[in-house]
Description:
The structure is a homodimer.
Chain A: H1 12-25, E1 34-35, H2 37-43, H3 48-60, E2 64-67, E3 71-74, H4 79-102, H5 106-125, H6 128-145, H7 149-168, H8 175-190, H9 194-207, H10 212-218
Antiparallel strand pairs in A: 1-3, 2-3
Helix pairs in contact in A: 1-3, 2-3, 4-6, 4-7, 4-8, 4-9, 5-6, 5-8, 6-7, 6-8, 8-9
Chain A binds a DNA duplex through helix 2 and helix 3.
Amino acid sequence: MKLFDRSPxxxxxxxxxxxxxxxxxxxxxxxxxxxxxxxxxxxxxxSRTPVREALIELSKSxxxxxxxQRGSYISKIDYxxxxxxxxxxxxxxxxxxxxxxxxxxxxxxxxxxxxxxxxKFCLEQEDTARFFPLDNEFHMLLFQSVNKARTFEVIxxxxxxxxxxxxxxxxxxxxxxxxxxHENIIYAIERRDxxxxxxxxxxxxxxxxxxxxxxxxxxxxxxxx
Amino acid sequence: MKLFDRSPxxxxxxxxxxxxxxxxxxxxxxxxxxxxxxxxxxxxxxSRTPVREALIELSKSxxxxxxxQRGSYISKIDYxxxxxxxxxxxxxxxxxxxxxxxxxxxxxxxxxxxxxxxxKFCLEQEDTARFFPLDNEFHMLLFQSVNKARTFEVIxxxxxxxxxxxxxxxxxxxxxxxxxxHENIIYAIERRDxxxxxxxxxxxxxxxxxxxxxxxxxxxxxxxx
DNA sequence: AGCATGATACTTGTATACAAGTTATTGCCT
DNA sequence: AGGCAATAACTTGTATACAAGTATCATGCT
Lengths: 225, 225
């Protein structure tokens, strides 16, 4: 399990959440493995209270399973949950891009284009670490442009499940394709071409689809059933 | 603030959540009012720990706002949040009813029809208290029928905000209309009439829309801004 | 009077002690 | 050896003590 320093001003609970989330997503904490409040609190140099509160929060996102008086475990990967998260995202992103086509504001379009420029810059520098947050920001900007920022937060809270199999899947889709998708979507919005925008968005979201069978075959213990 | 007995087997945290949720939704705890962990723990006859954990959970649903070292407050009603919740629900329910039209299973249709029968029975008995859970169950069954139960859970977690203004608004839509809607939706699904199903669902979801200006005028302190 | 200042009484955040339940182990009995 | 029972070593749940920050109010100074 990898450890970080506590950021200044960060309270113990959020620190615990940050460290645990990182280690769960990057599979440093294996799906199915046991974690205990005592063990974690000594590892993180905290008392049980903030660690416990962190575990409770992660259990609400179904990343941790707490069995009362028995133990806590890193949840195994639930493929159905991931597919459902993708369904939710697909449906909501399409609804949002449709709204965006109805009344595209120049201010919002500028922000989106600026973001794409940054994405391209990262591509040239091959700075993939900086690329992912920008990808995320692009979609956030899209939701913000139609006043649906909170909806995006809901989606994002579901995306953690997706992050875990992205870690597992070595060959994730090329950032080049992703940036192209983004550019085309903005193009469609500017033209107010709802139909095209939805087709492009659907293809974009479905790009992330991973091959279940391969992953389950390679890491059977990480998955439910 | 109304109090209940602790159910057998219910732990202190869930009990605190249940009582607080009830009192927030029914406006026994006024939006904007201060609540403190100490005060609540003595009211509920619990220690601070489970009460604190309950407040943290409610703060995740934006029903409570925790200001570190300053105090905790019942969140004021955010109309934009409610509208956005309705947007999410509208979009997802339509997507689900569309899926249901593609391959309506007899088993699922039977469950839905049985549910409607129960709704009608409640209507005859004028048992509104039993009606609301059935309304909820109807939509849950619909989501389950297309394997999207978790999506429904996400929607439902957003619905608490809606419940609060339903309490405020004395004249909520007549159950009679709601049952009619449900019947018509099932009819459309059986006929695999996607277009009709979506129209009916849209009207059904939008029925709950409340008049913002009236409510804000009557209870200005309960709302943000 | 008005303002600064310090004590006090709050608040939530964190640490720790104890309670209650589960699991594994150990040792005895058959 | 096998099985059963007591026990010890865990687990999370809850209660409480202490830490640290904030707001209020009183007091004294200008």
